[in-house]
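User: What would this chain look like folded?
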Amino acid sequence: MLGAAGCRTADAPHPHPHPTPGGATFIPMEEAPVYHVLDGYDPRWRAHVEDGVELARAFWGSYGPVHVWVAGREEHAEPSDDAKEAFLTEYCRLSTSVTDRLHAECHCHASERFLDVVERGDAEAYLSWAEELEQPTAELVFLNVHRWFFEEDPVPDPVLRGVHEYTHVFQKAFAHMPIWLMEGCAVFAEAWIPWTAQRCDEAFVTARMDRSMREARRATKAGLTIADMEGLDSAPLEAHRFYRELAYDAGAWGTVLLVHLSPSKSVSALRDEFFPMVDELGWERALCRYLGIENKYWFYEAFDAFMEGTAEQQHHALRELRP
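Assistant: Here's the prediction, encoded as structure tokens.
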């Protein structure tokens, strides 16, 4: 759903292109996500996205409501004008049916949001929603996902994007949590969930987490840590330069450590016990109760020490995690 009146400028943000650490937004529901695909875009790209979304939904549970929007343009297949118009019309039919927004206004925004990106050849994946609705609808947006596909990948990257974005739908069924946990948990899920589904081997998990460690070290070398990425408003100015390294990469290892320090070392327990505890207590008190610690600063100090450890120590913690 579109969140602002009038046509935005080209550099204005989408409504929540990344998950904000606000309160609960989505609800448990049995209904599967509804898919909307630009006609003329190879259906295998929707299939990859859906594969990832369903892998994540099988692990995290079914939440929503969710609509998935998939569009793209490959060099050998230009979608027709009629197909583009039908895609925009479908989006605006759903968007304007629950708001006072005019169809023409929506059409303008949707064209910029979807088709302009497709025409530029940019690849994007994100979750958005409109908070003013009584029950917000999750919009998982995947544009030009073919640009992420490489034959040699053991699990296609578009599948992993589906895992990542649906993980945010699950997270947003609970109360406020820091950005590093939102994004870091989703990056960790990209590796962990395909492994639990027997779609890859342990080496795949290790390789992806090693890549995150290399990126995270760029931030730690600058003297920054996940404690600096609880929220963008509270983050030091220097941390904004390392947003991805802190939120996504260091956050993925923060998630590993959170699970590793828990009594069960179980990722399923993170899902079934910790996240509901966040709803009950708030994330800081939930963290303390879940790990049996006095305050969040104990965890942050443990994380800094963990990051200064050897690769062998970090791999050991990763291997000790249980489904």
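The longest strand covers residues 66-71. If you want, I can go into more detail on any region.
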